[in-house]
Amino acid sequence: MPIKADLDAIDWKILRELQQDGRMTNVELSRRVGISAPPCLRRVKRLEDTGIIRSYRALLNAPALGMDVVAFCLIGLKHQSEAELKTFAERTRNWPIVREAWMVSGESDFLLHCVAADLGTFQSFVIEELTSSPNVDTVRTALTIRQIKDEGLLAIG
């Protein structure tokens, strides 16, 4: 599959470095990728302006903050019309416990990544919000045991 963006080797190095540490200074980034600071800053700005770099975030340690339950929910809707899919997608934006939501193919329609303080909070969410939502047919949950891998979103050489 062809790459949709016009990126050279330096751009890829910039993306790899920023994915590992989005807080480094432009001077440090330029040193790591082997170019001077001004062109490095221009390249980063171009990557941001074209939407290749969407944002910068702090990755928080959920258990250290008392958020001990991580679970995934597979949601099947009764009807999959475009309007019904959009309605459910919009509903997920209003649930703080849902940290990521994906529309998927196969037996389910949505995959939700949920983080909660405790099992009771998660169970209440599933019962009071998910299963009682209009058009929801099935809810399957999977509680996580431990995270095995946590890499950046993209594997960059």
Describe the 3D structure.
The structure is a single chain. The protein is an alpha+beta fold and 157 residues long. The chain has helices at 9-20, 26-33, 37-49, 82-92, 119-130, and strands spanning 69-77, 98-103, 110-116, 136-143. The protein has a 4-stranded antiparallel beta sheet. Strand 2 and strand 3 (110-116) form a beta hairpin. The protein is elongated, with a radius of gyration of 20 Å. The chain starts with 8 loop residues before the first helix and ends in a 14-residue tail after the last strand. The model has no long low-confidence stretch (mean pLDDT 93).
Write out key terms for the chains shown.
157 residues, alpha+beta, four-stranded antiparallel sheet, 19% strand
What's the helix and strand layout?
Blueprint: H1 9-20, H2 26-33, H3 37-49, E1 69-77, H4 82-92, E2 98-103, E3 110-116, H5 119-130, E4 136-143
Antiparallel strand pairs: 1-3, 1-4, 2-3
Helix pairs in contact: 1-2, 2-3
Strand content range: 15-25%
Poorly predicted regions? none
Terminal Cα separation, in Å?
A: 16 Å
- Biggest pleated-sheet summary: 4 strands, antiparallel
Radius of gyration: 20 Å
Side-by-side strand order of the widest sheet:
2-3-1-4
User: Would you report the number of β strands?
Assistant: 4
Class by SSE composition: alpha+beta
- Summarize the helix and strand pattern as letters: HHHEHEEHE
Sum up the overall morphology in one term. Answer: elongated
Q: What's the rounded overall pLDDT mean?
A: 93
**What is the helical fraction, as a range of percent?**
25-40%
